[in-house]
Design goal:
The protein is of the alpha/beta class. The chain has 2 domains: 175 residues, Rossmann fold, CATH 3.40.50.720; 219 residues, 2-Layer Sandwich (Dihydrodipicolinate Reductase, domain 2). It has 15 helices and 18 strands. The strands form 4 sheets. The protein has an 8-stranded mixed β-sheet with strand order 8-12-13-7-14-15-16-17, with helices on both faces. Strands 3-2-1-4-5-6 form a 6-stranded parallel β-sheet, with helices on both faces. Helix 5 links the parallel strand 4 and strand 5. The longest helix has 19 residues. The chain is globular, with a radius of gyration of 25 Å. The chain starts with 21 loop residues before the first strand and ends in a 9-residue tail after the last helix.
Length: 511
């Protein structure tokens, strides 16, 4: 969708080096800026990938001077950068960092910010090109967008493009997502809105498209004729930590399934795009989300599972229950584990179940996509195979940790009598490439500077994903409250999750 009354000029898309510009970071004193954004920008500078005369104007409530903020920025980059500080590169990079302060929806603060922005643009000759980054709590998004619209309506002076990066979550339900989209579209064209999901910046996630569409042996078997089912798992060994208050209003479904996992699903299931560009790739991803069969309330109990962790042991350390975490009210019904079985009503995937699961305080941190193929007929091997079916071939794409791709197949064990055993062909990023991969934020910030939206989420993607998840939330709300907690920390979730997949004669993969 493109706004009819957009305030900003559309941004040109280019495969060449990005134009000089100013990045305006809202939330400059926050954790995201300290741990991710400034280290990512510094590493891009270290690789000489930033545009000439790039300026970074940081904005937050804290009253810092330019010099004080630059000192704070250096401490954070030294602590969180994937590579050490090079003094010469840092001095050049820091010379382009500036600071202004004020409230996020405070007109006076924004007036001060805009005056400073005009000064920086004139001093460093950035051509009026601006990339706004909203590294702030989602409750402040609309207020900031409205202030940007007010300032731009008054005229920013000069030409140049304007883009905005919005961090997740994109709403807490379908209605709030639509409200946020309306607010953003009143100021920016959709092509200039970059909704960031850092999972899409991971090298292994980007490699899904290459693996599927650049290898002639994969695409012919990537369909219902050969694929039995697909599992997508995002497991976390950590609990909610200091985010208890925020997480309690979110839960596993909103925090992980609606965004990260649905993005992985759409990349695995999409049709070949017309080209590898933002419009073509995202068109196909939206088609996948629109093909997901929506639940009726009475189907949710059989096709989903949810849980909340109790006390237990993770990696040899005793950990508390969710309701004992800081900021979590007693008796909370918020889920820390969620599992779904989805079907896509499409020609390619008709009848193929997609099993999705995510949870906190599971035994290990792991993100994996596993494509399980239909087993071969057992006719030739029935005399020396005990199981009723041959083990299927499984293609697993590991996104974290130990990024790579593995294919499991059966092979004969040497000697007699004949026996078979699974073996694996493994590709590991760390072993195959000497160069260190850029961080997800380095990749995504660079794409936004170049005007490439391929790895960002479009408004109709957001709304399609929320449409699916709202059916689940509606079904859960009509069910009796669960007796929680219902899984021990350090285990793989509640018994209902195992029952969900075992009813279909399948099992969750051991990670």
């Amino acid at each position: 969708m493109t706004a009819q009354a957009s305030t900003f000029a559309a941004a040109p898309v280019s495969d060449s080096a990005p134009h000089p510009c100013t990045i305006v970071i809202f939330g400059a004193s926050g954790d995201l800026t300290a741990r991710m954004l400034l280290p990512a920008l510094y590493n891009l500078a270290l690789d000489r990938r930033l545009p000439p005369r790039l300026s970074i104007l940081c904005y937050a409530r804290t009253k810092w001077t330019d010099e004080a903020f630059r000192e704070e920025a250096r401490k954070n980059v030294e602590k969180h950068s994937r590579r050490p500080i090079d003094p010469d590169v840092w001095d050049s990079f820091a010379a382009g960092i500036f600071y202004s302060y004020g409230g996020y929806d405070d007109p006076e603060g924004h007036d001060r910010l805009n005056e400073r922005l005009r000064e920086v643009e004139a001093e460093r000759d950035t051509g009026g090109n601006r990339l706004y980054y909203l590294a702030v709590p989602p409750t402040t998004f609309i207020g900031i967008i409205e202030q940007l619209g007010r300032a731009q309506a008054q005229g920013k002076g000069g030409e140049g493009w304007s883009r905005v990066i919005v961090e997740k979550p994109f709403g807490v339900d379908l209605a709030s997502a639509r409200e946020l989209n309306r607010a953003v579209h009143s100021v920016f064209d959709e092509d200039d809105v970059y909704r960031i999901d850092h999972y899409l910046g991971k090298e292994t996630v980007q490699n899904i498209l290459v693996f599927r569409f650049a290898n002639g042996i994969m695409e012919p078997i990537w369909n219902r004729r050969y694929v039995d089912h697909v599992q997508i798992t995002v497991s976390e060994s950590l609990g909610v930590g200091s985010r208890g208050s925020y997480y309690n209003g979110s839960g596993a479904l909103r925090d992980m399934l609606q965004n990260h996992i649905m993005q992985l699903l759409s990349l695995v299931a999409m049709e070949p795009p017309l080209a590898i560009d933002g419009r073509s790739v995202r068109n196909e991803k939206v088609k996948v989300l629109n093909a997901v069969r929506l639940f009726e309330d009475d189907e949710v109990a059989m096709a989903t599972a949810r849980g909340q962790y109790g006390p237990g042991w993770v990696a040899g350390e005793e950990v508390p229950a969710y309701h004992e975490e800081e900021g979590v009210p007693g008796g909370s019904q918020t889920e820390t584990f969620a599992a779904l079985r989805l079907f896509l009503d499409s020609w390619r995937w008709a009848g193929v179940p997609f099993y999705l699961r995510t949870g906190k305080r599971l035994p290990k941190r792991s993100t994996e996509i596993a494509v399980s193929f239909k087993p071969a007929p057992q006719l030739l091997f029935h005399d020396f195979v005990e199981k009723p079916h041959l083990e299927p071939n499984v293609l697993s794409i590991r996104i974290q940790p130990n990024e790579g791709i593995s294919l499991k197949f059966l092979t004969k064990v040497p000697g007699s009598p004949p026996r078979m055993r699974p073996a694996a062909m493994d590709f590991l990023y760390g072993a195959s490439f000497v160069a260190q991969a850029p961080s997800a934020y380095e990749t995504l910030i660079m794409d936004a500077l170049q005007g490439d939206a391929t790895l960002f989420t479009r408004s109709d993607e957001v709304e399609a994903a929320w449409t699916i998840m709202e059916r689940v939330l509606s079904g859960w709300s009509s069910m009796p409250p669960l007796e929680l907690p219902n899984y021990e920390a350090g285990t793989w979730g509640p018994a209902a999750a195992d029952e969900l997949i075992e009813r279909d004669g399948r099992q969750w993969r051991r990670l």
